[in-house]
Amino acid sequence: MANIYIPFGTVEGQTARIAEYIAYVIREHGHEARAVDLQSSGDALPDDCDAVIVGASVHMGKHEAFVTDFVRANKAALERLPSALFSVSLAAHGDEESAEGYVEKFEEETGWRPAHVGLFAGALPYTQYGFLKRHMMKRITSSKGSPDTDLSRDYVYTEWDGVRRFAEDFVAGLPAADP
Fold first, then answer.
1. How many CB atoms lie within 10 A of CB 177?
2. pLDDT tens profile 66-113
3. C-alpha angle 120/109/13, rounded to 5°?
4. pTM for this entry
5. Which H/E stretch holds residue 169?
């Protein structure tokens, strides 16, 4: 049984929901898993973790700076332990090239090249946005040809089956436990 640490950064909460679901899937497979918001937990990597899955969301073309700082601070451990990255963006919903570009930029900024990467579509939580952001996001969404511009509702694009496959693939790739 492995102890898997899932530090994440989130702005509107979709990355947190994805991290919690990954932890749930991992626990279904008999391992320990703990999803932790990096904004409140700090940069320290727990000594008892056997593997790490870092989660970050993209806003205005970049992953959260505090996630980048966490990866830089723990790069040696992330390279030593089984580790993965999942990136959450609206680009992952129909513009995979841009979503991949965000990860490439993150890898350049941190120097960490995770062996496993998941690209997950996020959400448009219009009802959580303030007036200006709600209308700005509607304009961006409309300019990309999306019909999802009803400001009275939220749109979730995350493909949960893909998140499950990512978590299960990660667990399947863990080294076998010593008897």
1. 9
2. 999 999 999 999 999 999 999 998 888 888 888 899 999 999 999 999
3. 35
4. 0.91
5. helix 160-172
